[in-house]
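Quick board copy: two proteins, each given as sequence then tokens.
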Amino acid sequence: MGPGQDQPRESHLISLKVMRLSRPSLVTGHSLYFGSPHGKSNLATETETTLQTETDEALDMGDFGVSELLTMPASFGNIYLGETFTSYICANNESAHPVRDVILKAELQTSTLRFALSDTLTGKHIQLLESGKTNEIIVSHEIKELGTHILVCSIQYTTLDGQQKSFRKFYKFQVMNPLSVKTKV
């Protein structure tokens, strides 16, 4: 390849999936009309999600645009100083062959410090990860510093023919101040 062209990325037998864990919220919807109490489902009355009005007319939670279902956040969202950052990390063997000696590391870097969140090398690393199987960990850390933070996930493994492979992925996020008080003198 000539200069200026991208080099092909090395393909790996293991994929890495990372998801920030946070509290789920209720699914919101838009109520287009107010249905009569006779037309509502039994689910609302069985789960006691109705409210009695002053006229003894029952209102369903759906009338307020909120359902009985929970949803996980679709985006990373905001994280604030003092919160606990929790993340789910999954190493998945997507190849047709098993891999050996899988080591999964997770670190959190700030502008001044580096924290080891998980290191399967110091603990018990996976001797053999079969095809289609996963290794999952959950890491947590209390956020004590404002600014840019980077979650660094590293995977090392050995193929069946003895070749050692590794890769890292970086997930950058901003920590915001939950409360800002300004005074004038």
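And the next:
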Amino acid sequence: PREEEAVGSASCLTDAQQPGPVASEDPPTAPTTIQQSSSIVVSNVERVRWGSKSEDVLKLNLKPQEAPSSNATAWAHGLEELQKDFEQRMAALPSRSAPWGAQGSLLREIMDAGRELCLEPQRRWRADCRNFLRPGDQQRMLRQELQEVRAAGQRWDLAFSDAADDVLLELCADPSRQDLPACRRSTSEAEQEHTPLLERIRDLGRELCSDPRRAGRASCAEFLAEEQLPLLEQINELGHELCMDPRRAGRPSCAQFLPKEEAKATDPGAWEKSFSDKVAAYGRELCLDPWREGDEACKQFLEPPPQEHSVAEEALAFGRELCLEPERKDYDACAQFIEGHEEKPLLDKIMDLGHELCLEPHRRSRPSCTPFLDREAEFQGRFEQLRKEERAWDEAFAEQLVAASHELCSQPERQGSDACEGLLG
């Protein structure tokens, strides 16, 4: 029996080393398949090691036609276990466990953090911030910076202007500088700062239009829209101050602001007439002394006054008659001949006053003076046309006046007067 066991074991060993009829059915296939499987596993291990993401090792290693046969050796079974171990390790990798949505949210967080950092002023213009900023961010930031620069410039201009005004007022407080043109202008502007010119003119219009006699005028509609405190006294003071200037003496528009005594004092013609009367009275008083009788210089003072005054009165009456005609009643030259002539419309008076005030250098740049200065060219053209018409009318009037004077001087009682002799001569 022992010999039979030895022979049996030897036969088994021989069968293991040299496969029997079962192994001889496909002797070259098993070793070839195992070698191919090992090479594929090694290559896939390298791919898994360097970051392969979603490939299935089973699908890569063993294809259906390459599955191990039932006759595979223990080494082939070891390879299968090794493959399972690789699959478990791959399943434990973080790249396989973390979903792709979480990675996308992380990328968005990174972009948002970079954009937030690049929106700060000290980083917004860096080259590496272009990847984080949106297309309209830089344009919006540029507009915002431009607005901030403009606002800062305006604030600086206002602060500088206020500081300059304060320094100028402080310097002009010195009595030795009060007569300087810059100090007079700064003082007047400081006084007028709280009451703009256009507002004062509107207040004047409201005050004048509050008179029942002007309530129905179309030009008063815009002034009566709002109720304001009466400013007639302020306007009268302003008109009185302006009309006291010798350059405006004798203007018809100043008659309503100046009393009769002051109007006569500022009128050059009235002053000359008063001075001539005083000289004539003093000359007559001196020439009445007996020892000056027969003096040639006293003849002009002692002779009775000629009839020139009556001729002048008749000439004025003739002028009134001519100016009452419809085509001549609007001439400015007729204002001195027509008594109780219609006064200038209220709106024209206000526009004239505003235009006159805005012609002063320190008011020309004010926005409220724009509507008054824009009409300057229109007024100039109209004035030239009226001046031509007035010149033509004056020439015709002078001819008619000379003819009337000849007619008056042809009367016997006026032929010896000095005025008629000079006229007829």
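Board note added afterward: The chain has a mean pLDDT of 65.
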